Amino acid sequence: MATLVQVVLLIAKTCCELLAALLLMRFFMQWFRAPFDGPVGHFVLALTNWLVLPLRRIVPPVRAFDTASLLAAYLSQVALLALVAGLTFPAVGAQPLVVFVLLHGLSALARLAIYLFIVLLVVQALLSWFNPYSPHRRLVDRLTDPLLRPLRRIIPPIANIDLTPLVAILAAQILLIFV
Fold it and tell me: Cα(112)–Cα(107) distance, rounded to whole angstroms?
């Protein structure tokens, strides 16, 4: 029985976190006005439209924020945490469990967003080193530039090498310690 629970949790964790990461990617792409016209944009839209478009009828965007995508990502994390808590702690009362799941869902979503930016920063660094003319470069630059622009004002390139992605990754990992 314990093995079956582990299998169910592994499948649920994989599906919910992948969905939440795609929903966060959609949120950040819209917030930073990144292009959806490439293969990555089409992939994100194809895998998230089924959830975001109906949710937009209920939750309208607020300024430049796609609140439907953000809410869907949060609900994905909450559903995963509720499943984990329900399978792991079945004897705990419902009220403390609900509060725990709702609050922990926020930190799980923040942690996932930080990991997403770390991956984007690594991809950006790799593209700049190995394929600076990649069609994906424009998308990755649009998503990482708001983080790197302030750092570039402080840290100049050394021998034409931009160290700001490394500093941003270090800062993100420090932030993960607190989240």
Answer: 8
Global pTM reads 0.91
Provide the domain limits for residue 157.
2-178
Q: Is 33 helix (H, G, I), strand (E, B) or coil?
A: coil
Asked if residue 111 has pLDDT above 80, the reply is yes
Task: Assess whether pLDDT exceeds 70 at residue 90.
Answer: no
Tokens at residue 116, please? Answer: 């997403």
Length of the chain, please? 179
Checking 5-11 for CB contacts under 8 A at 24+ apart, the result is 5/87, 8/83, 8/87, 9/83, 9/84, 9/87
Domain count, the chain: 1
pLDDT at 150: 95
| Coil, helix or strand at residue 132 | coil
Residue 91: pLDDT band by 50, 70, 90 thresholds?
A: low
Kindly write down the DSSP assignment for every residue of 51-117, as one continuous string. Answer: HHHHHHTTS--BTTB-HHHHHHHHHHHHHHHHHHHHHH-TTS-HHHHHHHHHHHHHHHHHHHHHHHH
The whole-number pLDDT of residue 66 equals 94
Inform me whether the pLDDT recorded for 87 exceeds 90: no
Helix axis angle, 39-56 to 2-31, nearest 10°: 100
Tokens of 51: 């959830």
